[in-house]
Every structure is written in structure tokens, then in C-alpha cells.
Amino acid sequence: MNYDDDDECDCVGFPILGEPAPDFEAVTTHGKMKLSDLKGKWVVLFSHPADFTPVCTTEFIAFTKAHDEFKALNTQLIGLSIDSVHSHLAWVMNVKEKMGVEIPFPIIADLDMNVASMYGMIHPGQSSTAAVRAVFFIDDKGILRAMIYYPLSNGRYIPEVIRLIKALQTTDKAGVATPANWQPGDNVVVPAPLTTEAAKVRLSEGYECKDWYLCFKKL
């Protein structure tokens, strides 16, 4: 997507699900980081509008409280905003001092908007200088699997981020899909048959079927 010269933002577009996540090397609160160096781990890359803002602070506290659960899922959290590393460090120390919470994951300093533009985090209808609340789910092979966008005004629901990681990992492990409102332990969806013959035998395969195209099973 292109914008007129009068616009402050020249965003390059959005990444595509099922394709390699755009690689980058960036300065973070934990030192320089290259996304491709994290292959072998799942990554949740999430952006926030700015340091020292109320909703963002609540989100970082919530992500921190869930950090051990993400770690158990072999998932690396990475935050980002269009702020300097010095601003990030001051904010991290402020959150620790005032809220008693030590943020354990890196935060990308993206003053040049390089990563934000690469991932379509800048939406001029919201702001031309601040990232929206985007979340990108990158698998252990570096493939972008899901993304969610929230406006500046509303914080994310962290259990949904965790639930989607678990759903994606279940899909990969068992070759199944997950239905609406799925939670770990619930029945999963068996892939629909792709031929007339397979459709004919589907109902006799021992699944819990509503019809030939909608069948469930327990893992």
C-alpha cells in the first residue's frame, strides 16, 4: 500500500499467512536480535502504541504473568513499539519499581518503523506514528500462521493468544482442525473428505459425525 507524499507513513503492506515471516534484525532491550535465529521456537511478536501508556502497561504485565505458560509452549514473546531502546529500558524499570513486575522478554526499538512497516503495524486511520496492537504467530519453522489486530484503545485478551498457540500446535501435531470456541481437551474436527468415495465411507469410520463433512474426534 502506498500513501501520498503528505502522509507521514509509507507502509509497505501486510505479511501473508502461510509464508515465511519477514525476517529482521533489530535492537531490543535484550540486545540485537534476528528473527531467523529463533527458528526451532514459536514466536509471538506483538506491537504496542507507546511506552509509558496505561493500556500498554496493563498488557505487558499480563504477558509477563503468562510468560511461563508461553515458555512451556516453546514460544518466545517479543514486544515492539516505535520508541527508542532507552525509552523501553526506562519503562521496564518503571514497571518493576511501581508495579513490582519484571518484564522477562525483549522489546524491539523500532524508531525507523522498519519492522512496523514490514508487518503492517502502522494504520494511518489510527495513527501515523504509533503501531496498533498487532499480534503475529510464527511457527518453529519461521512460517507466519496467524495474526490479530486490535485498535489503540483496547487491550488484548492474553488467554486467547495462548489458546491460539495451543490450537495451532495441535493442528500440526495431529493433522486436525479446531472448531469454534475450542479449548485444549475438547473434541477436534476431522478434515473433510476430498472425494466422493471418501465421503461415502466417512460415516462408518467411528467418528462423532453430524454429517459426512462435519465429524469430530477426541485426541
Task: Considering the chains and any ligands shown, give keywords for the structure.
2 domains; Glutaredoxin; alpha+beta; Antioxidant, Horf6, Chain A, domain 2; single chain; disordered N terminus; 219 residues
What does the secondary structure layout of this molecule look like, with pairings?
Elements: E1 25-28, E2 31-34, E3 42-47, H1 54-65, H2 67-72, E4 75-81, H3 85-99, E5 107-109, H4 114-118, E6 133-138, E7 144-150, H5 158-174, E8 188-189, H6 196-202, E9 208-211, E10 214-217
Parallel strand pairs: 3-4, 4-5
Antiparallel strand pairs: 1-2, 3-6, 6-7, 8-10, 9-10
Protein name: Peroxiredoxin
Catalytic activity: a hydroperoxide + [thioredoxin]-dithiol = an alcohol + [thioredoxin]-disulfide + H2O
Subcellular location: Cytoplasm
TL;DR?
The protein has helices at residues 54-65, 67-72, 85-99, 114-118, 158-174, 196-202; strands at residues 25-28, 31-34, 42-47, 75-81, 107-109, 133-138, 144-150, 188-189, 208-211, 214-217. Helices cover 28% and strands 21% of the residues.
